[in-house]
Amino acid sequence: MDIRHLKIFIAVAETGSMSGAAKQFFVTQPSVSQVIKELESHFGVLLFERLGKRLFITDSGRYLSRQARIVIRQFDELEESMLNAGRTESVRVGSTITVGACLLSSLMADFKKSNPEIKTFNYVNNTKMIEERLLRAELDIALVEGQIKHPDLVIKPVIADYLVIVCGRRHRFAGQQQIKIKELEKEVFIMREKGSGTRKLFMDFIEKNGFNLNIGWEVTSPEIIKTIVMKNNCLAAISIRLVEEEAQNGDIYVIKHNEHSWNRTFSLVYHKNKHISKGMLGFMNVTQAYGNTGIITDVPVGMLI
Fold this sequence. Notes:
This protein is an alpha/beta fold.
């Protein structure tokens, strides 16, 4: 078995066919079939179920797919570093949408100050998509606000955050010091898309308290969410870090939960088998320097009870 075996196997897993992988590698379909047979013989497991003309990857195949991507990425990194010794290092950083909106630009600016020689690629999406890219070795490290539970990923909490409910200055909740939880049932909410860590945290709270939520909007962009809140008399659950300016100038009114149920942390995430490069270490150091700073405390707020 060599690295080419694994690359062909990944191609079969991604395309779902021997012929698709054969086209990618400019070989015959029987050659691809032989590679899969050799891998199955080597590991003593069935990697694909063959039903008619279709292939279905097995649990063993899915496990090998995850691990093979890491091995291939490490091999490619080794080859690249040996061929380009002394040239520019690169790091691929992922962040969830909330982190991307409120922190990523500042983080990367600070990173470039201390690591000007390192090239960076940044990818912003929801927690689910970031997790998938880390597992496929398409990202080196990420900063996320959602929960990640995959056993192959290392999670290190680094930056404090919490959710708040926000409304516009003309909303009936604006200026109220106390709002009862049941009052939320009467309101229209803007929610992040499924796969968002912000949405999951808030929906877990809703389910725990046993009431219905009227979701009138589903939006991926924090800036659009804030605009809708201010112009359409809706409510939204959002990171406190995203509404600092609007809360301070009075365009948005902030409502906290009195039991701190929406407290969370932004966490660094990377694969457990990942080699910690200089670029990854530099990004870790920058995020840890942010610590508990940046959460506003000097604006009037309401309290959900």
